[in-house]
Queue: 3 jobs
Job 1
Amino acid sequence: MVPASEVEKAMSGDELLELYRRMLVIRKFEVFIRDHHSRTSTEDVLFHGMTHLSIGQEAAAVGACAALERDDYIATTYRNHAALLAKGADPGKVLAEIMGRRNGYNHGKGGSMHVTVPEVGSLGSFATVGVSAAVALGAAFAALKNKTKRVAVGFFGDGAINTGIVAESFNMAALWRCPVIFFCEDNHYALTTRTRSVSPPQPYSARATAHGIPAVHVDGSDVVEVYEATRAAVARARDGLGPTYVEAKTYRLVGHMVGERFEDRYRAQGELDRWKGRDALARLPDVLQSAYGVTADALAAVDRAADAVVKQAIEYSLSSELPTAEEVGSGVFAPSPEGGPG
Amino acid sequence: MTAINAREALRQALYEEMERDPSIVYLGEDVGLGGLLDVVSGLAERFGRDRIIPTPISEAGFVAAALGMAQAGLRPLVEIMWADLSLCAADSILNGIAKLHYKSGGLVSVPLVITMTQGGGVGHGNSQSQCVEALFGHLPGMKIVCPGTVYDAKGLLKTSIRDPNPVIFIQPCALMFPWPHRKGVPLHTEDVPDEEYLIPLGRADIKRTGSDVTLACYGSMVRKSLAAAQELASSQISVEVVDLRSLIPMDVDTICASVDKTRRLVIAQEAHRHLGFGAEIAAIVGERMFKRLVGPVLRVGALDVPIPQYPGLEHMVLPGVESIVTMVKRAMAAS
């Protein structure tokens, strides 16, 4: 955490409380998914199949998205719930989508890994990691060309830093000075492999700086620090100064995916506990009280408000039916004015 | 009417569309001097370097970037120099672009065109001579257009650009290069209307009417099929040449109506015979027309080996006019 004196310059207590509320909603939202999920059964479970949670990483998503306007763009990976909610997506429609319901944003056709919310600037969630960097770069290119002043954030993890498409994106973003922020959520693992163990010793950010892209490292558990760094990157982008690489050191306190079989076998001894100690949601209430004078009552009210949001999202999702066979079997193409047999 | 070649026809289509719609941008490798086949020659001078954009050699990246552009107010045309190189961008195309309309529940449309020159006959060897339509057609989500004539190339490209869906626009080598590929052979030209025209996607065109055999073909095999039909006419075999023009969506009704008349079907593709569109058409016609057929549906295609570079060997592997003539005669003999 940055010293309280600097924090106070960054935002007011009310503003930080609001970021805390957003993080809390995401945490409760994803805990609900985790607790009602089964990988092996479709009977009597609400969530099924490959599902990736950001529990422990909320501060990175919330801090980054707090620096964006609603019509700025984001592109995400399969670990997308946190960023989409942080960007302002409706929790009920996201949850219904993850449940495969008709009232989900994508009528249940996307599912957990592919939630797409254009109304908050989401360009899609991509299960092949690294693609999000290139898609964001393209939207940023368009924003630059059309002089809209919008920026795009490509979210990806440390695992994706080793993909070719991220390297290609760095090159083109620098070449064309695109208003894009490459936001690397470094949770230290590519699935269950320590990314460091499959990478050279140089910092990941060296890949960005090698292309002339400035790099910033932040504590991904510190929502204020993430926000400040992203805000500076956004300002650079809007000023026509091109891309920035922001790397947030963070940690997922759960498995790579829900129901992961190896959860206890790849983390270093004591690592999980150490990061639980850094968990922003565990620390922020103290910070809010001691440095901002937020009362215990106010914190409790925020907790209740977050509960209410998630409860409403659950009720909305459960009230939605499954899409019909006809709906599922159509919609590969948008209707063409020219028509023709399909 | 003016006689032009396919390169000029595509350039005209681009010029007209970019003039009409300022959101169109064209990007690709080595397009700075007009591109490998001169398709964008002179367009940068007219539309500027921010609309004719040379890219680094980064197929996966710039194709995925086009997906972002298409969602942010541009209509990108992406040139992939050789179709074989599209495999570098296969993930961006098939997992990224192709699925977005469906997986977003229809919230997102992806208006972009990926052009690529494909096929053999010009000595480019095993990794720059292949046909990729079946690779990209198998997984749902991409429209696939493959003209066989200059006239169709222009009209289909204009329609592809205006389509709200992602389109793979295949430019056959046999149309883009002199064919046969010999010294002194000029590029094929056709009379093309001076006024604007569009050709809808998903509509086949009967290029020659006939009564004995339906010859379904597309791309580089269209002109070869017409030459074969001409030759077969002297053997009193009347061939109906159905040019599919677009493979996805495919005009199955026109194929079936023709087969209903001729009761025989041969499919000609430059692509390898196995697991191709020919197999798909044979299956569809088998399902819908089994009792009307008087003989087996036969396929013409490349041998199922990598395409050799040496012209003599390449000629043995790729289907030509003689392969089509032989297969049509076999279809006649088998019934």
Note: The mean pLDDT of chain B is 97.
Job 2
Amino acid sequence: VNSYRTVLALLVFMALWPLTSGAVIETYEFSDPVLEERYQSLSLELRCPKCQNQNIADSDAPISRDLRSLLHQQLEAGATDEEILGYMVLRYGDFVRYRPAVNEKTALLWFGPIGLIIVGIGVFIWHFRRARSAPNADALTDDERALLERQRRRE
Amino acid sequence: LFIALGAFLYRGLSLDPTALPAARIGSEFPSFTLPDLATFDDINQDVLDAKPALLNVWATWCYSCRVEHPFLLDLARRGVPIYGLNYKDDAEAARQWLTDLGDPYRRTVFDKVGTLGVDLGVYGAPETYVIDANGVIVHRHVGVVDEDVWITQLAPFFERPRAGDAL
């Protein structure tokens, strides 16, 4: 009975363990729930400059904490999404946004994949047409047909 | 086309993904009002009056800063003006650091919460910025500054027309 209790206590302890470690990211009070929604979406959109493949909502790097705090301040001060994103891009570059504004530096990023697909479709169509315009290219020549005929007769 | 694409992507393999282009390159040094680490008097961008100069972002919690510190002292001895930006640090610890290890900085700006840091686009320490004769940020180096970095990246901004310069 005793060991059963120990196991139970351990299980309860383990079940509660994640609650303590999940509480590292601070919470902000918002005067308006709309601001809170915008905070959530902007912090998912902004990328942590230090940790690269995390957004600032997800990252516990000091710089992300600072940017979240700035985001909160600016939202409460009445800044628009464009103003906030502009502020961040001015300081950290296009890199800081997961969906950067379209300009000459990001054009390749935005249109490159579509361009490659178009090129791919083009090559496919070209190849397909060439194969159709010469339909007998794969057909047997007279010599080959004669050879095939001889082989068949032998069997 | 495939070869061109391959070459483009292959070149990407040798790039350092953590080296971000600094957005502030080419713009004037941001204005600030922050305490001087030594005196705690408020100072602003006007104290950065020796130009061209380096601005080195450092902190006592930053291990690489300790690594590059002797080289910064060496540069300062060679006459390169260096300003310090003590970034998100404890003032007492930072003063002690300069007392123990030597002080290569003309002035050190104490940026407790990182406001100037954010204005510059700092995302870690150490970072070193080059401010040119017009007060414009012309270069950023992220990471330790050593002789190699100095010669290849920073020194060209300090070359003057005068011959026989100590630099």
Note: The CA atoms of residues 74 and 83 of chain A lie 9 Å apart.
Job 3
Amino acid sequence: MTNNNTIGRLHAPSRRELLLASGVLFAWAHMPKLALAEGRDPRLLVVVLRGALDGLAAVAPVGDQDWVKLRGDKALLLDGPTPALALDNFFALNPAMPNLHRLYQAKQAAIVHAAATPYRERSHFDGQDVLESGLSRPGTTDTGWLNRALGAIEPAGRVGGKQAFAVGPVTPLVVRGPAPVMSWTPPRLQPASDDTIARLLDLYRHTDPALARALEERMGLAAIARAGGMTDAMAPPKPGQPRPAGAGAQVKAYFAEAAGAAAKFMARPDGPRVGALAFDGWDTHADEGALNGRLAILLSALDGALAAIETGMGGAWGQAVVAIVTEFGRTARINGTDGTDHGTATVALLAGGAVKGGRVIADWPGLKQLHDGRDLKPTTDLRAVLKGVLRDHLRVGDNALAAKVFPDSGAVKPMGGLVG
Amino acid sequence: MTLDPKAQAALALHRFGFGPRAGTIATIASDPRGALLAELDRPGIGRLTDPDLFTTGEAARAVFDYRQERKAARLIERAEREATSQTPTPAPTPTPQAGMEKDAKPEAAPAPKAAPQPPIPQQIYLEEAKVRFDAALAAELGFVERLVWFWSNHFCVSADKVRPFAGAYEREAIRAHVLGRFADMLLAVEQHPAMLVYLDNARSIGPKSPAGVNRGRGLNENLAREILELHTVGVRSVYTQPDVTNFAKVITGWTVIAPRQDPARGGEFSFNVRMHEPGAQTVIGKSYPDTGIEQGRAVLADLAKHPATAKHLATKLARHFVADTPSPALVGVLSRRFLDTGGDLKEMAKALVTSPEAWDAPRGKLKRPSEWIVSSMRATGVPVPDIRPILNAQNLLGEPLWRPPAPKGFPDDAASWLDGLAQRLDIANQLARRVGGLVDPEQTTDAALGPLASEQTRQTIKRAESRPQALALLLMAPEFQRR
């Protein structure tokens, strides 16, 4: 009944084009003048892991006699079925992170354990606000510590060709603020995570079975469509069924692409020197899978991202610090659904040629006495770590760090010797 | 009514409007029904008054001029190319572009393309889409805009065939009468150039008309059939095939002036008596003498007040707003009000929001993708400077703006849209990643759902691992998907 279109057809966009809109790398378009004067040209890339990384599952205290008691058969061990990678005579790294292990052995990666922001409650939103704002408690704030740190550095010449960056519509809190930032978006959709789908399905199953059925069917079809090649980070695993081999390929590809491209920008002589990325999905309440499940996939993706950063930075890797932080840790014990709940202390990872690595930095609190009877006790203030990096790597002044970058943090001294 | 006032306000906004914006639930909580009725009485409501928008005629002439210019440019280009190829000296490079630029250096890179302006028909379409979307975002409740969208879908045309006219059509034929008489809307629709082109009546010629006799061309039944089947009395109702054929003859001559024939009035409606089938015609048991254009108007006037039309429209209206299978009681109320008021659409809208059935029905309707997108943008309060991502999202979700798959329009039942749920999650995820860091999920839940949010939904949102995830879950929550 309708004839051929004589007027022209609306360009039907691919999914890829459609999803171009969200910015991922947020970067500062200047060089730090003081560092340049010292003959250095430092790079700093901050990676925020949203959802709260289980620091104990990433870097396990295998030498702590209470470790196995707490985690049971979920405990990462040097001699377990999936052997952990030894770091020193007390800590071992999750085997999903061979690149980080290699960097650690090359003294280009350091791990800070039992670290936490000053936040002691367990809300993701507030926790991320504290992590990114640099304030000592949650509250209304429009600016992040990284941006305020940039404001405290005397800039040398502006960098960044106009071609390389677009101004993003919205930036994450950690880089929001008066110092101008640019954003770049990887041309790939970050798929709705397993975790988001699982949460939504759970809600639907309890409240709207018709929607649950519809979503399950679609996800099932999507899994079939992708079978054999790119698998399927999107389809939720059926209870009791192992993940297909190569699971998480999409997540891994996304992490690597975003991180690698960010590093390539930052490596250029006219590229930005400071940037930030965020990766989601770390809220592992059920079926955490630290050894061969979901968390192992995420850690492997993060490890791949580190490798991509190292490659992408090229010659600038020697001048680089990558700081990987998360809002808080998770419970020391496994919960009733083979996962972990919101906790307190966790790890911070530092990698890069400028890092004085090859060590786990921890004032280890032990696992006998847990914070609130459930969480790893915080013994290192994460702000001390970040202040140390900002001071020694970018040459942000002590006064600015104490008052402006991390307000009211005068008592938290910058941790020395992380860089150099 | 068992709902508390705020729950009723939230229901009013989702079911009859475009969903809450920050604060609207509280604003109308004292009298949600009164707020809906008041919107119907607001002066100028439903109209769009953007002086930059083209009328249908202006759009048609602009497109005609644009095509003429392109054609001329192509002719010139071809002539120059032929001239170049006849010169004995070979051109520096064989590309046509180089041939046109006499002083182009051979090693020069191809001239950088200026950001390409979309063709004129697409520019008009985008402009119209933006104005329409902004109206939906800006509406206090959105009841009248929802009515516009409903009637526009009932009387749909397809932009695939009439791209530059789709927006003007909705403004001129639908909005102008959305709170007026159905008979007037029906006439405005069936005489509108967009509809006459879309359903081929512009080319339909009475076989015994002067034009038909001369050219040996004839009848096209498309528009006549759809008027009966879709626009008025409804399929399998009171008409037969001879009624369709006769009605098609009645409206022969209802056509559109070609811009090349009349540069001043091109693109506008005209009754061309030379195409009109002479003689009386019988449609649904009544004979209509040949009174030229009035013959068709008389048939439409009778169709507009037919009880089958009342029932058809009442069923569709109730299905759109209230339930996939609306209660016969509600359909009866709407149908009676339609007939009692001579097809007054404002009275019908009032009957809808004053019927207890329209409020008491369970919230089982799945929002159509376009409704869901608008309500999402209203809930987050995010400005929409560029309409294209919105249109792309609608395409992805299977409801491209003004491009229904068939003259029946987009379906209005959950079964048709359930399959798209996974794509909705993609869109929600994308939107949330873009704006989720800026909004407070729990405040947004209160503003968007108020008391409608179940404890499970609140907990799911509260426990999300990040604000973007919380926002995506809110937009995907059953209470936000359904109304």
Note: The two ends of chain A are 74 Å apart (CA to CA).
